## 1
Amino acid sequence: MPHQDPLFSIARQNILVAGGAGGLGWPIAQELARRGANVAIADLDESKAMTCAETLTRQGARALAIALNVTSRHSCEAACQHVANTWGCLDGLVNASGIYRVGPALSLANQDWQNSIDINLTGSFQLARAAGALMVPQKSGSIITITSVSSRIANPNYAAYAASKAGAAHVTRVLALEWAAAGVRVNAIGPAVTPTPLAAQIIDDPVTRNNALAKIPMQRFGTPQDLLASVVFLLADGAKFLTGQILYVDGGRTIS
Ligand SMILES: NC(=O)c1ccc[n+]([C@@H]2O[C@H](COP(=O)([O-])OP(=O)(O)OC[C@H]3O[C@@H](n4cnc5c(N)ncnc54)[C@H](O)[C@@H]3O)[C@@H](O)[C@H]2O)c1
């Protein structure tokens, strides 16, 4: 049953979830559909995106699957255009795509550095730009990039990941300024460690797991569900004067 409280309603919004087949993207996509949004699941893994979209459709939502590679400008533009062509316009973008590559700076492979920048930074910029190109002329829209606590804090071994996430957070502020007058809002959400396939290398190793846990004041890892209210709020009308912010949903990690 779609929620109709105007402050928090996203019913009938057309929303593209990039990385929508992933550990965070899929629960987000499910929540948006549950609240009556039309949801496009866009992912590098096209077959997983199709399975997710079919699941939403079976549950009565309007959903579609899109093959997306955020490192390609053309792919980003085609994905956003596909939503607009299918449902009339693009109201929201949630970019939950990304990769996690860490290692000591002295031995970090150049390819890990480059892939982190290409996907997490250049990719999130290209996708936001493709969405903005449709939203600015229509004078409405909300863009959310899932960055990380690493947008703000430094961890050893995180040069590539932290650079990509800090860059994505700052691009969020720049785009928010460029598009504020057009009524297009650009924000980010920074989660702490959350068990998903991406975080398996932290969670599965007892030493890194305990180190990571010890840094979270609330003494637990995040869950995808912890992010849902923030995503919904940033997409909804209740947040219509809120732009250029990085909302850390992190159990206190960034203040510790
Ligand atoms: N899980 C965590 O602990 C955590 C914490 C903070 C931030 N984040 C960020 O949240 C986002 C989602 O992470 P997750 O945990 O869901 O990871 P995940 O690996 O479960 O999902 C990531 C999704 O992104 C897709 N993807 C990868 N490269 C892509 C590309 N080039 N184009 C399009 N899609 C691509 C993958 O196919 C996958 O479905 C990432 O940006 C990650 O950095 C995750």
## 2
Amino acid sequence: MPRSLEQYLRPGLKGTTFCPGCGHGILLHAVVRAVHELGLDRRELLFVSGIGCAAWIPSPHILADTLHTLHGRAVAYATGAKLANPKLTVIVVSGDGDLVSIGGNHLIHAARRGLDLTVICANNEIYGMTGGQAGPTTPRGAASATTPGGNPYGPFDLVRLVLGAGAAYVARFPVTQPRPLTDAIKRAIRTPFFSFVEVASPCPTQFGRRNRLEDVGALYDRIRDLSISRDEAFGRSAAELRDRIVVGEWTPEDLLLAGGGRVPGAPAC
Ligand SMILES: Cc1ncc(C[n+]2csc(CCOP(=O)(O)OP(=O)(O)O)c2C)c(N)n1
Ligand code: SF4
Ligand SMILES: [Mg+2]
């Protein structure tokens, strides 16, 4: 992390809590850079996370108020904090399992209510911390501790899920695109309603190891190769977009343009 950003890190940190090659470290950098570039006052900033490797992104690393809460309940705590002190900029950073599996109901209802929260979901397509179980974002066919023969189910499309639930701003970028990712986090924080950023963040230890992607470079190549911009995806069939990571930004107008149904550029499940 460059010197200019060290002021946002807790003193005494010796490295991060993440395995070598974990995408969550790159996401930590993007979050800190976004806060720096927005010039946010740390005293009016609150980070909230649940439980999981991704939930360690703000706590213990970022020098600001952090609530490291219960598994699946980060959005509920964030809602309470924002209602108690509306002046706070409240940013939830947590994992796909935490936010979308056990915490899925909190997520969609917070989007529906439209409270001014920013939720950043580190999606590594697996439960990393607890040994690599499949979750609702695990790709069809992927191996995990609970699906050694391949996951029989397709994943949620988080963009469509959260936008359909009422979010004002939704974005998806991989950690391999740190500049657009940082800009999306800034836009999400500036959005005065519910906003959501999905971040494709590779997990070498659980997802890579179980899916013949032990080489960290190959795991990052996979994310890079699967990513396709929203503009490039537009007009392609669901079959062509299957398994691709459509990246970009979406607002509720995209739903209106699509007649309330399909979000342009988002693959059908
Ligand atoms: C109520 C409850 N159920 C289950 C757990 C076990 N648990 C802790 S973290 C986790 C999954 C975390 O996955 P994710 O949010 O995707 O984060 P990652 O580790 O992949 O970054 C689970 C199942 C728990 N701590 N509490
Ligand atoms: S288990 Fe996976 S998600 Fe957790 S720190 Fe290691 S590489 Fe990252
Ligand atoms: Mg995960």
